[in-house]
Amino acid sequence: MAIFLIAIGLLFTGIDFSFASGISYPAYVEPQGEFMGVAMGENIQTYVTKYILGDRMAIDVLPDMVGCILIIIGVSLMVKHNKKYIQCMALAAVTGLLSLTLRVLPFFVNSAALVVSALAVFFLLAVFELWMEYTVIYTTVGISDDLANQGTNRRMQFLWWISAGARMFITALTFVGLFSVSRWYEAVNVIFVLLYLYQLIESRKYVGVYKVYKEGFNSAVIPDYIREKMLGVSFPVEPNRDISMEELRYVRVLHYDFAGEIQEGELVVNQKIAWQTMRAFYQLYKIEYPIEKVRLVDDYEADDELSMEENNSSAFNYRRVEGKEELSKHALGLAIDINPLINPYVRENEYFPANATEYLERDVEKCTGPHKEKMIHKGDLAYRIFRRNGFEWGGEWSHAKDYQHFVAKRVK
Q1: Is the peptide bond before 370 cis (omega within 30 degrees of 0)?
Q2: DSSP characters over 243-289
Q3: Do 342 and 374 touch, CB atoms closer than 8 A?
């Protein structure tokens, strides 16, 4: 609803179709000499009274005041997503006030004072109207999912700039009285206002789903290119009752690799744990905790064994528990595996991945693995961070030991 209100409001402010009402302005008095040190040019009175004001109060078919009120209502519903919408409300209020002031100004001032004040209000109205629209558009882009909605956002911004350019040129042409030329730009403006507002309405389903925990740590609905990568690989082609793509989130994080270099990582998790996942990885990042790789299992054809052998940390994978019919928590996007090669899954006489032999010995003093210092143990930093963020550690299970595995228990 908020996006629709904003779109209607921007339609009202962006398109001006005015007609002269039956309310006449007082007779204009020709300016004499100077006003506050400003000399009145020979034609300036004509331009202002004929091309900007007219001799009767103009009635806008799509009134700017109503448009500004609709924008204020719409953005007030969006403040929860971004506090910058408060600035949008203030700009809309000023824009509406300036629009009303320009309409009623001739009833209160006349002569040279009218010329100077009308020009000032006319200019300020143009500036604040574009400033307001710019802030609304770019703030909305900022809270929408720029991965899944990137094309729509870019088209909306591009079309708005064309509309803004047309209106700036119309304003300039109005100053010099070239109405015949300005009509063409008004037509261009109408077309591009409608086009960018269509893109705005199209983006409504993505507004509010793009979450940023810290710079470099964000989550989004599954972008189309990731969706295509997952379908038939980590996510089944056939519909299922267990999980839908809409319930998942694409999470991007930063992490330190085993060489101490900062890398960008990506995971897919359930939307219910996206925030705590970002927070946990941010806390690991802050202490420079080493994680060799954080890639989607789709890079390994959703082969969990191959992903683990490459020591890849991952999350979502629609699969069963190894050796059982039970659906894994990974299939619901509720589990994360960290450095699985050096933190293997051990059950009776089996262990996974197959190349994790060196790390079956969990005592750091006895382990012969080259990365034994990076193994996860109860009470260590990785353990405490994930526990604080609502995860249970598989290394504490009694029936098996899944040292890599953290499963969400506190789901928001």
Answers
A1: no
A2: --GGGEEEEEEEEE-TTS-EEEEEEEEEGGGHHHHHHHHHHHHHTT-
A3: yes
Assess contact for 137 and 75: CB atoms under 8 A: no
Instruction: Tell me which residue of 357, 315, 312 sits closest to 222, measured CA to CA.
Output: 315
Task: Considering only the C-alpha atoms of the chain, give the largest distance between any 2 of them, rounded to a whole number of Å.
Answer: 103
- CA 350, 356, 358, 361 torsion: positive or negative? negative
Q: Of 372, 362, 353, 373, which Cα lies nearest the Cα of 396?
A: 362
Give the tens place of pLDDT for each residue, 175-207.
Answer: 666 656 666 777 888 899 999 999 999 888 777
**Dist CA 247 CA 153 (whole Å):** 23
**Which DSSP helix (H) or strand (E) runs through 115?**
helix 111-143
The average pLDDT across 337-353 equals: 94
End-to-end distance of the chain based on CA atoms, in angstroms?
A: 25
* β-bridge partners, 267: 251
278 pLDDT more than 80: yes
Phi, psi of 60 (to 5 degrees): -80, 125
- Structural contact between residues 170 and 186, judged by C-beta atoms closer than 8 angstroms: yes
Q: Which of 211, 262, 229, 173 is nearest to 80 (CA)?
A: 211
Token pair for 310: 């490459």
Q: What is the mean pLDDT of residues 304-309?
A: 96
Closest CA to 292 of 253, 261, 330: 261
Cα distance between residue 77 and residue 39, in whole Å: 47
pTM: 0.65
pLDDT in tens, 94-126: 999 999 898 888 888 877 778 888 888 988 998
CB atoms within 10 A of CB 127: 15
